[in-house]
Design brief:
Order of helices and strands: EHHEEHEE
Structural class: alpha+beta
Number of domains: 1
Strand content: 25-35%
Number of strands: 5
Oligomer: single chain
Radius of gyration: 15 Å
Shape: globular
CATH architecture: 2-Layer Sandwich
Distance between the termini: 9 Å
Largest sheet: 5 strands, antiparallel
Number of helices: 3
Length: 141
């Protein structure tokens, strides 16, 4: 069994491409043997973070990068976009607001999360603990 695996892909910054990102994340997790509630949580948060990137990135004709890293007892989801100066900030949404709950969901479902500025992008990440999770043995190639 490999000690570490990663998968990365890019999608165009367009709302119609969010389901493609969600499907690719789900397939990668399944290939790694990650299923059930953990796969649901990671896929949901990937959907939220990709949607946030697509919605809030102000760089025209850009791409969103999604990366999953399986490293021992942790799984890391990273979503990057080229609008490096607009870091996400959680806020309290009122019951009447349609959006604004994505980062609260990330905080609730991930073991830890955060964001960082890179030279030409920003990255929002979420970490998941695999300790005690059934069936997370990566498939061997």
């Amino acid at each position: 069994m490999p000690a570490s695996e990663s998968s990365r892909f890019r999608i165009p910054k367009h709302r119609s491409r969010v389901p493609v990102a969600r499907q690719r994340v789900r397939k990668t997790l399944a290939d790694w043997g990650i299923t059930d509630e953990l796969a649901d949580a990671v896929t949901l948060l990937a959907n939220e973070l990709v949607t946030n990137a697509v919605t809030h990135c102000r760089v025209s004709h850009s791409q969103i990068k999604v990366e999953l890293t399986l490293n021992g007892a942790e799984l890391i989801l990273e979503v990057s976009d080229p609008d490096r100066d607009r870091l996400p900030r959680p806020h309290d949404s009122t019951p009447d607001e349609e959006g604004g709950r994505g980062l609260a969901l990330v905080a609730a479902l991930a073991a830890n999360w955060g964001c960082r500025q890179e030279p030409y992008a920003k990255c929002v990440w979420a970490r998941f603990d695999l300790e005690g999770v059934q069936g997370h043995v990566p498939a061997t190639s």
